[in-house]
Predict the structure of Aldo/keto reductase.
Amino acid sequence: SLADKTVLNNGVEMPWVGLGVYKVTEGDEVKSAVKSALKIGYRSIDTASFYGNEEGVGQAIAESGIPREEIFVTSKVWNDEQGYDETLEAFERSRQRLGLNVLDLYLIHWPVAHTYKETWRALERLYTEGKVRAIGVSNFLKHHLEELLDEAQIIPAVNQIEYHPWLTQPELHRYCHDKGIQLEAWSPLARGKKFDDPILSELAEKYDKTPAQILLRWDLQQGVVTIPKSVTESRIKENANLFDFQLSEEDMVLLNTCNCELRFGKNPEIFG
Ligand code: NAD
């Protein structure tokens, strides 16, 4: 169910499914999406300083009446906020906007060259001070992680990357698994741009599920946390309805054959 959780490498529990709110407008739109999700049973929200909607996310949580400790809130430090002192300040701003004392997960949004190691030191301090329950990274390739782990005191709990059947990054996936870093999929629906793929359509028909549900179920069966975005209540509900069916081994393999290095977002090798 939506209450199902993975246990991160520091023992903190994180829901397998959350609501992503990238490109959701601050104010009424984000408040309404988060409120719908919480009503449906979502207990994890993925925002970022860059998304410009942390205030609305915080207000929706406060107004939901759900105990704070039952909701897992992720935010991220943006590229122009990185560096040691800068990150400590950026965290303070995110915390203020969200209206929360403690965040559940704070991520380095992108591996900004020459800076992300300093940024990581700041995240380690925030974690040690108890201001965030887990720290992690986003858009880190294997070589970024290797470099980070060279000096890190704390191993990232999570790496949030673009991940869907057309971009499976098996080597990075294996590396994260071996290091105890939980993989989290962004754009798990491939931004809605692959719903007419013939393999996906065939599976949707076979399981009598929607293409979105097939994609999200594929994440879960691989042990990947997933954060689909929608502002439409019926779709938010649909994207959570993943727990009454199972893809067969063969169909998991079939979906994995879609892999073709197709990115809808930026490439971390050149952006950051
Ligand atoms: P997504 O793959 O979740 O696709 C979202 C789009 O798919 C929606 O805008 C809608 O058009 C469509 N959609 C959603 N549910 C649907 C349904 N049931 N049926 C039909 N269409 C549906 O794309 P995303 O927003 O890019 O990724 C999800 C979340 O991941 C973001 O909101 C954000 O929280 C996170 N993210 C993180 C990064 C990063 O750099 N760390 C980058 C991008 C996104």
About this structure: The pocket of nicotinamide-adenine-dinucleotide is lined by residues 20-22, 46, 109, 138-139, 160, 186-192, 210, 212, 227-230, 235, 238-239, 265 (CB under 6 Å). The first strand starts at residue 5 and ends at 7. The chain has one domain: 5-256. The mean pLDDT is 98.
